[in-house]
């Protein structure tokens, strides 16, 4: 279970990439006071955790409702994770998460941006959701489910800490440092995407025999 904990934590952290959200968070909160920015970071972490927990435990039922097989989910999820990784490598993290100039301008006018666009779609998106649904099916025991749930809670706390420290991280690492880290994570994420696509194809072919 310890191996599962760290494997899921590393993969999910790479797919979510909260460090890549730092410049976007700062761009959306230029006039916020420190308490306001901290409150937004805290609410974003809570919403992020609830969204991922919800999809993790209810994702399989949602797939069954729409008649989507898990092998198809693996392939589609692999494509989304691969696309997310490419966005990180190409330096288009925000654009890949559907955050464009119009969304940023709208966010500047809103009182609360913690749920949308920060928690979703910036941090929790199709890549992380499909990854968690796959993990739910690959590790069917309740012990494994609790381990993955603990990872989600921990990651939500890390999201809060990273966004709360966004200004300091940006000062220390700078735009270049954050992009360099994103590119490294992008390579890992693309590898995960390819792995899940291959696994989905193998499973689908096996079921057709």
Automatic annotation (TrEMBL):
It is a multi-pass membrane protein. It holds the Pfam family MarC. It comes from the Bacteria. The chain crosses the membrane at residues 45-66, 115-133, 145-163, 184-206. InterPro entries: Multi_antbiot-R_MarC. Keywords: Cell membrane, Membrane, Transmembrane, Transmembrane helix. Belongs to the UPF0056 (MarC) family. PANTHER family: UPF0056 MEMBRANE PROTEIN YHCE. This is UPF0056 inner membrane protein.
